[in-house]
Structure formats: structure tokens, C-alpha cells
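Protocol step 4 of 5: obtain the predicted structure for the target chain.
Materials: sequence only (see below). No template structures provided, no constraints applied. The aim of this step is simply to have a reference model before the mutagenesis design in step 5. Sequence pasted as it appears in the construct record:
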Amino acid sequence: MSNNPPSLLSLAIDATLINFHNISHDLSFLPEHILIDLFLRTLKAGKLTPRILKLFVATEKEEILSMIQALNIQLVLTPVLPTRCSEKF
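Step 4 output (C-alpha cells):
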């Protein structure tokens, strides 16, 4: 019984999951089938954070946006309170 080695694409997606904290740029250059695989593996690994969700949403790829909507994943916006309302206080 011989096991086939993982594909280079699979290894690259796994490496991306491990190093997602270092990715801060646009993912829209990736082909849609790779984005879908990366998104699904991100969900399965439990690594979908608001920052990573923003990266996927920013791709504006129809299939990714449809999956996010179908799974009812919403970006939670935390309000930022001002530290000072005016100079009078």
C-alpha cells in the first residue's frame, strides 16, 4: 500500500493556513478554486477570524461571497468609543 504524497498546491494551502497571521495583503489574485479550498480549510481548522474574513470578502469573488452568505457568517463590528468628546472636558 503506497500513499500518494500531497500535491504542491495542497502543501501551499496548508502553509498558508499556518502562516495566515503574516498575510495582510489582497488575496484576489488567487484563482477562485484555490480561494474556495483555502476558505473551506480555514473554516475546518477553526482559523476564520474577523481579519481573515475581511481578506476573503475583499476578493469580491462571487463564490466566496455566496459561501459566506450561505453559512450566515457576519463580520462583527466593535464600536470604538472616543476618549475625549471635546476640548472642554
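Step 4 remarks: The chain has four helices and no strands. The chain has a mean pLDDT of 87.
Proceed to step 5.
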